[in-house]
Every structure is written in C-alpha cells, then in structure tokens.
Design a protein that fits this description.
Blueprint (H helix, E strand, L loop, with lengths): L9 E2 L2 E2 L8 H16 L1 H15 L5 E3 L1 H7 L2 E6 L9 H14 L4 E6 L3 H13 L2 E7 H6 L1 H9 L3 E5 L6 H14 L4 E4 L9 H9 L1 H14 L6 E5 L4 H7 L9 E9 L10 H4 L1 E5 L2 E5 L24 H9 L2 E7 H15 L5 H7 L12 E6 L7 H8 L2
Parallel strand pairs: 4-14, 5-6, 5-8, 6-7, 9-10, 9-14, 10-13
Antiparallel strand pairs: 1-2, 3-4, 11-12
C-alpha cells in the first residue's frame, strides 16, 4: 500500500485538483515545477539555512518525564512550539515563499484560522519584502486577537471573512476568490495539507522536516529510529502530515490522528471528520468532508480555532480509509483538561490544538516500554484568553 501521492495527485481515491478554469494556469505551473524547484541545490541550501538560523531548527525532542510517569509509558514531545512564531506553520511558509520567489510572484495571499499560519505567512513576507494579504474569519479575528495584532505589526493586511460561519472555511473561500481575480502576480500560501494538487504534497514535504528530525533524535536518545507510535492533532493536518511522513511505510510505527469532537461527536457541534465525513470536494480536492445529505457543507465546531474545519487533508482521508492511522476524537473538555495537565506537570503551555493530541493518554493505555512521540504543534500564548475563560483563571 502506498500512502504518498501518486502522479495524478491522488492518495488512493482522495486528492486531485478540482479548480475553476481561471486557476488552472497557476496550479498547473506549480504542479510542473514544485518538485524540480525543491530539488535544486540552491533552493535546498537556502531553505535549510533559514530553518536553522531563522526558525531555530532542529526543534528539541523532549522526554516528558512527569507525564510519562503518570501514564506509565515513554512520552516524547516534538517541540514545534519552540519554532520562531510559535508553531510548525513556519516550516511550510519558508518553503512556499522561496517557491513563490522562484516562480516570480510578487504578492502573497493566505487563509488562517487560529492565526498561526497568518502570522507565519506575514513573517516570511516581511523577511522577503513581499506584499501580504491574510483572510481570516470574523469570529476567529475576535478569538485570536493577539495573532491579528502580530500580523498587522509584520505589515500584513488582515481581511475579515464575513460569510457563512465566519471561520477558517470561509477565509479559505475568500482567499480563493482573490486568487481567481489576481492569477498572474499572486501566490496562495495554503497553510494546511489541503487544497488542489500539488498543495497537499508540497506542504507535507516542507513539514516532513519534523519526522526527519524525530528519526535521528530518537536514535540519539533511545538507540532506535522508530517509535511505537506517532501522535498528532488534525484539522487540515499539516503538522500531522510532517510528523507521519517518514514513518508512513514503516509498519512497526502506529499512527494516531486526533480530531476535535467539540461538544461530542454526535452533538451537532463537532469537527470529527473521519467519523462524520463522507467523500466530497472542498477547496480544490476530494476528501472526507462533513456535509448534509444533499452535499451542503455542515458547520464544524471546536473550541480550538485551528481544528475548526469541516474536512481533512486527502492524505489523512486515505490513512483513515485504509486503516493505516487510528483516528481518535477528543472533546473540548478533554482537550482543555489535558492542556492544563501539561502546564502543571511539565511547565509547558500548549496550544489548544495540541492539547487534543495530549488528551489521548486518558483514553488509551500504552505499554510501559512503548515510545510515543507527540507533535507539540504550537504554544498556548494565542489561546490564553480561551484558557482564562474556560478555567476562570
């Protein structure tokens, strides 16, 4: 079984490029050139140099001693929260801004939910001196105010999405409209492993630095490259795609994908796509999608702005359908409790997205000698307001 994208842009039955005719030249240019550009020695050198000197990679693989003791297993945290801008998102935006420059693009657009991808895009645009427009749902703008301020300080223009649920899905719609209107000079930096081919594969490859580092870091600490489990939270799924990438075809490594159950999988207020989703098309690709009987996209819900998405990247849909990954759904309450536990056991305040991944230890029992690597995809600064309200701090 192959878990990577095929030449036609599909992961099994998921993926492809379902796009308006107006966007065909952009997407096709990218498809024809992305692998070639990424293989260029100069590109690799510049990408790796920026990851090292600007982002601060490699990010540590930290053995969480007190958390491991509590759950009687070996838990390692891949500290993507320590990257510049506070999350994994910067890995991809550095790669894509270098790609955009080589394709001669002068204007950058992006969508953002939790704001981390918006901040990471605004950051690299400032670094490279390119115009930056970020689309963000009106509701997310309200709940992620610090990130909005950061984007503006970095010189980006933040445009509110006022339609639909006014969250990530709607911000993506607005960004696609912009791209259709500005096809020649604009590159759309998609922040997740979603969108028309080649985006899911390109984003995954830029994020695969995460699993690449895990292998040699684990070898140093445990004397082996492969853990028993790799765990990550999934919205669209770029941190997960990067965490799984080098383990996809290692049968001894089990993959756990953690989705947001919101108020409960069957509550009507959820974002557990693998359970509630059916095959459908969203934002340019065929994937698992929460939808009504007649194919209208249903509104997702999660306390976490980054997991509040009605679909999942096509690679993850394939992992779910083939059974390669075990999908678990975690409620708001379970995630918030797990986030606070990490604060108090390890002195690390995680993003609420990441807290979903940490909550699996209350639900699943592991062996004492299992090595489990959890992607700590982002830090919790952006979520302090939500934590404060939830715990009445």
């Amino acid at each position: 079984m192959n878990y990577n994208v095929n030449q036609k842009g599909y992961y099994g039955t998921f993926g492809g490029a379902f796009i308006p005719e107006m966007l065909y030249p952009n997407v096709e240019e990218l498809r024809q050139k992305y692998l070639e550009v990424m293989a260029e020695p100069d590109f690799k050198k510049e990408f790796n140099q920026l990851l090292k000197d600007y982002v601060g990679r490699p990010s540590p693989l930290y053995f969480a001693k007190r958390l491991s003791k509590k759950y009687n297993t070996k838990i390692y945290l891949k500290r993507e929260d320590l990257n510049h801008t506070g999350a994994h998102k910067i890995n991809n935006t550095i790669g894509q801004i270098l790609m955009a420059k080589r394709l001669g693009k002068t204007r950058i657009i992006a969508e953002t939910g939790a704001g981390q991808h918006g901040v990471a895009t605004a950051t690299v645009c400032a670094l490279m001196g390119l115009e930056c427009i970020v689309y963000m749902g009106e509701i997310d703008i309200a709940r992620q105010a610090p990130n909005v301020a950061r984007m503006k300080m970095l010189g980006a223009k933040v445009v509110p999405a006022l339609s639909g649920s006014r969250t990530l899905k709607d911000a993506t719609n607005e960004a696609i409209r912009d791209w259709i209107n500005n096809p020649v000079n604009t590159h759309y930096i998609i922040g997740s492993a979603i969108g028309p081919h080649p985006y899911p594969d390109m984003v995954t490859r830029f994020q695969s630095v995460i699993s690449e580092e895990i292998k040699w870091q684990l070898k140093e600490q445990e004397g082996r490259e492969n853990p028993n489990y790799v765990v990550a939270c999934i919205g669209g799924g770029s941190n997960a795609a990067g965490t799984y990438y080098h383990f996809l075809h290692e049968p001894d490594v089990k993959i756990i994908a953690v989705e947001a159950a919101g108020l409960g999988v069957n509550s009507g207020e959820s974002a557990a796509t693998s359970v509630l989703g059916k095959e459908g098309i969203i934002h340019g690709c065929k994937t698992l999608l929460m939808q009504t009987v007649d194919g209208q996209i249903t509104e997702p819900y999660s306390i976490s702005a980054g997991l509040d998405y009605p679909g999942v990247g096509p690679m993850h849909a394939h992992l779910a359908k083939t059974g390669r990954a075990e999908f678990m759904a975690i409620t708001d309450d379970e995630a918030m409790t797990a986030g606070l536990e990490l604060c108090q056991l390890e002195g690390i305040i995680p993003a609420i997205e990441t807290s979903h991944a940490l909550a699996i230890f209350e639900q699943k029992t592991f062996k004492a000698d299992d090595v489990i690597v959890v992607s700590l995809s982002g830090r919790g600064d952006k979520d302090l307001d939500t934590y404060i309200k939830y715990f009445k701090l």
